[in-house]
Design goal:
Distance between the termini: 120 Å
Strand order of the largest sheet: 1-2-4-5-7-9-10-11
Radius of gyration: 34 Å
Number of helices: 10
Mean pLDDT: 88
Helix content: 25-40%
Strand content: 15-25%
CATH class of the largest domain: Alpha Beta
CATH architecture of the largest domain: Alpha-Beta Barrel
Number of domains: 2
């Protein structure tokens, strides 16, 4: 028989070797996979099952947190305390009915800061030493001074916790028209961020104040909306610099109507509803009768608490007179009182009003501002 060609022999051998290698590789792969499966079943399976269950739970829609409920009894008691009428067993029911304070308004939603807390705020702008204490001192020194005022109020009224606040003028009225002729300047984001960070340092809150000049609240509020969506940021509006007649800010005292103020209230209320926030606070400055018109038409909402802040300066008797003449007779919801470190000491004045002085007022202010 003829001998097969040599190349066929080698081809057969090569095929056999390749087959053996493939067999060994498949065997090794299968064995290692089996080993891994066995190892996994012993050590990892329980953990993976637990993790899968956790992931499944995370994928489920999360239940909404239960809304905080307002303690209406505690609220009513605190409002009566703020009204500060003398307790008398001989007070007639007619007298009680004719009292202006406390104000009958919608109860706030749960989580409301007022009247359960008093707010003590430092006011101003970081660019200016003339606009208030915020621009007059280095940050650490300013915060330390604010802390001293907070402690004074806590001692004066131990039953009302005090919340510190940074009240920052985020839109400032200007003497020059500017490129758009609105006589106002919007502060850059970096400056507003400083105000928020300072408040965070003292576990406080922030008020962003608007001086519209020849602009409007309708134009200015949207620019601040990203900040107002933060739960610790509230709003202040200043009628003094709302120039309805077109006059340059600072030449005459401006005005806001109830329509203007209600616009701000409703704007804030929508932010609260859309973002599931606790109630906002709106501070409205006032020291003359025409600064706020149609006050009876201003409507607090469950989402927004309104403070009318006595904003005038002068000797103690003059300031108290302004409060009694322009804040007390037209009740809205809450009152505030501003103290000026410099202007309140101009001659003939010799001192600042103290917490003890202001707690004698009827009603007692729940918002205190230092400029």
């Amino acid at each position: 028989m003829p001998r097969p060609p040599r190349k066929n022999f080698f081809s057969f051998g090569l095929t056999a070797i390749i087959g053996l290698v493939v067999f060994l590789a498949v065997f090794a792969f299968g064995w290692s996979k089996l080993a891994r499966l066995e190892y996994k079943s012993d050590e990892v399976l329980a953990k993976e099952k637990s993790l899968a269950q956790a992931n499944k739970a995370l994928a489920l829609p999360k239940p909404k947190p239960e809304p905080i409920k307002l303690d209406q009894v505690a609220y009513d008691l605190k409002m009566k305390e703020l009204a500060n009428y003398p307790v008398s067993t001989t007070t007639s029911s007619t007298t009680v009915r004719t009292r202006l304070w406390p104000v009958k308004a919608a109860y706030p939603n749960g989580g409301a800061l007022l009247p359960f807390n008093r707010i003590v705020a430092y006011y101003g702008n970081f660019y200016s030493k003339n606009m208030g204490i915020l621009g007059q001192l280095p940050p650490n020194q300013m915060l330390a001074k604010l802390d001293q005022e907070v402690k004074k109020w806590q001692v004066a009224d131990p039953t009302t916790p005090v919340i510190p606040a940074i009240h920052y003028i985020a839109v400032t009225a200007q003497g020059s028209a500017g490129a758009d002729g609105k006589y106002r300047l919007r502060m850059p984001k970096e400056q507003i961020d400083i105000a928020i960070k300072l408040a965070d340092q003292i576990h406080g809150i922030v008020f962003l104040d608007i001086q519209v000049g020849l602009s409007t609240l309708q134009s200015e509020l949207p620019a601040l909306a990203p900040y107002l969506r933060l739960p610790q940021v509230h709003l202040g509006i200043d009628p003094e610099f709302s120039m309805k007649t077109g006059a340059r800010p600072g030449t005459v005292i401006g005005t806001f109507s109830a329509t203007d103020i209600n616009f701000a209230v409703n704007y804030l209320a929508k932010i609260v509803r859309d973002n599931n926030l606790p109630p906002k606070i709106l501070v409205v400055h006032r020291f003359t009768q025409p600064m706020v018109t149609q006050a009876k038409l201003i409507k607090p909402l469950p989402e927004v608490q309104i403070v009318i802040d006595m904003d005038g300066w002068g000797p103690p008797a003059q300031k108290i007179g302004t409060y009694n003449n322009f804040i007390v007779p037209e009740p809205v919801q809450f009152t505030g009182f501003k103290l000026f470190y410099k202007n309140d000491l101009r001659s003939p004045s010799t001192r600042l009003l103290t917490p003890a002085d202001l707690l004698k007022l009827k009603p007692r202010p729940i918002y205190i501002q230092y400029q």
